[in-house]
């Protein structure tokens, strides 16, 4: 008996969805609504190997969810077959430390947290309300990007700023991409037949957004993202770590206000900022091969920052069993993996070049047999992880 779960990931102008049978792990349908509120919207819906599309103006998330419902009705499978809906919710703040059944009180709580993630939480709340209207008879569940990192010790999550200000405004490290770090670390242990509780791992989630985590016995003890997903590694368009003095400096010298600096650091920095607009690693390598010095430096900075974090987490963990790569760059870009691991030779961490193949779709061991740390590529699957978490919550609530 299949158990279909609908998982939704609502951005400000998009909705990504999948209907997944958690028993067989089969994707029954998937789709994407784009350009919500931008005048020329569209939906693509995939099921049974076919892809369908509707182009029409989509005003808001209510219309987007109505279109998703229509797509399921027209092309299948029946949306009513979903036993629950899981909603990706970026920021759980200090309130939501685990996957949570959505009630009116939870919606109110999320609304109060919107200030912590103004770009991410409001569209998620719109999506939840619209999905509850479209599917009123099934439980809805919120899965938080921050939840996996609620176990960080105080020494790792506390910023060294005035305590009263930090407490009043809830300023601390929260961490993001938790669903992926959690899924991938469990999968890595399972793949090697190891007891998750007995091993330490460093997980590098390298996509457009990127973060690295230190995981001791399955429990997160540090991560590179912070109060917001801007901290840590160099990303597609985000700067990652930078001297916080840059805000006052740019205000004084360039006349930029906080909002302008925020946009600069989030949208016009990272690889795109360094390499004249290129944030996709395939483009970056093409540029490097053509002799582009900006792209070459961008890659050097990216590798340097990542290696610095891995080195730091080797020290935090004391003993590390696994180094795991995942997400778009981590899974596909063997050159990045090779350059990172080359820099870790002093720790006895070594790749087997023949195992370090591009575009890994399945879990793969890529280290040499004599490496002190096993290096793996584990494809992430945030949608499946969300579907499983949703199912666990509704089973527990029954
Ligand atoms: P997100 O979910 O954060 O948007 P992904 O995890 O899908 O991002 O990663 C997207 C990135 O993965 C792209 O920007 C690109 O840089 C990188 N990527 C995808 N395929 C390849 C490839 N074959 N080689 C190198 N990089 C790739």
Description of the structure:
This protein has 398 residues and is an alpha/beta fold. The chain has 2 domains: 4-144, 2-Layer Sandwich (Nucleotidyltransferase, domain 5); 194-382, 2-Layer Sandwich (Nucleotidyltransferase, domain 5), CATH 3.30.420. Helices cover 38% and strands 20% of the residues. It contains 14 helices and 14 strands. The chain has helices at 61-75, 104-112, 121-134, 154-157, 163-169, 178-192, 246-254, 258-267, 270-274, 281-289, 293-317, 327-332, 334-342, 382-397; strands at residues 4-10, 15-21, 26-34, 42-47, 50-55, 84-89, 100-101, 140-144, 200-206, 210-216, 219-223, 322-326, 364-365, 374-377. Strands 5-4-3-2-1-6-8-7 form an 8-stranded mixed sheet, sandwiched between helices. It has a 6-stranded mixed sheet with strand order 11-10-9-12-14-13, with helices on both faces. α10 packs across α11. The relative contact order is 0.11. The model has no long low-confidence stretch (mean pLDDT 96). Bound molecules: adenosine-5'-diphosphate (ADP). Adenosine-5'-diphosphate is lined by residues 207-209, 236, 279-282, 327-329, 332-333, 359.
């Amino acid at each position: 008996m299949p158990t279909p779960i609908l998982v939704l990931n609502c951005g400000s102008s998009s909705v990504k969805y999948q209907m997944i049978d958690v028993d067989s792990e089969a994707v029954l349908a998937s789709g994407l609504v784009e350009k919500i509120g931008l005048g020329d919207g569209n939906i693509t819906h995939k099921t049974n190997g076919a892809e369908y599309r509707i182009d029409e103006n989509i005003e808001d998330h209510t219309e987007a969810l109505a279109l998703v419902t229509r797509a399921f009705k027209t092309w299948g499978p029946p949306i009513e077959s979903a036993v629950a809906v899981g909603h990706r919710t970026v920021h759980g703040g200090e309130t939501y430390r685990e996957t949570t059944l959505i009630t009116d009180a939870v919606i109110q709580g999320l609304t109060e947290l919107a200030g912590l993630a103004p770009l991410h939480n409001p569209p998620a709340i719109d999506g939840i309300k619209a999905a509850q209207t479209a599917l009123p008879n099934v439980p809805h569940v919120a899965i938080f990007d921050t939840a996996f990192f609620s176990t960080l010790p105080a020494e790792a999550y506390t910023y060294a700023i005035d305590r009263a200000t930090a407490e009043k405004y809830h300023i601390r490290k929260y961490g993001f991409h938790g669903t992926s770090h959690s899924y991938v670390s469990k999968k890595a242990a399972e793949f090697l037949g190891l007891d998750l509780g007995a091993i330490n791992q460093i997980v590098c989630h390298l996509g457009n957004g990127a973060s690295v985590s230190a995981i001791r016995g399955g429990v997160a003890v540090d991560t590179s993202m912070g109060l917001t997903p801007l901290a840590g590694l160099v990303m597609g368009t985000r700067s990652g770590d930078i001297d916080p003095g840059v805000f006052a400096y740019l205000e004084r010298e360039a006349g930029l206000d906080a909002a302008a600096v925020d946009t600069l650091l989030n949208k016009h920095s990272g690889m795109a900022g360094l390499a004249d607009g290129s944030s996709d690693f395939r483009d970056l390598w093409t540029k490097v091969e053509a002799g582009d010095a900006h792209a070459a430096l961008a890659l050097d900075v990216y590798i340097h920052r990542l290696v610095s974090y891995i080195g730091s987490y080797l020290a935090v963990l004391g003993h590390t069993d696994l180094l795991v790569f995942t997400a778009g760059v981590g899974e596909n870009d063997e050159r990045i993996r090779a350059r990172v691991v080359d820099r870790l030779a002093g720790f006895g961490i070594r790749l087997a070049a023949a195992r370090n193949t591009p575009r890994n779709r399945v879990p793969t061991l890529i280290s040499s047999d004599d490496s002190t740390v096993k290096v793996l590529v584990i494809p992430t699957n945030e949608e499946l992880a969300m579907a499983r978490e949703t199912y666990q919550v509704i089973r527990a609530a029954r």
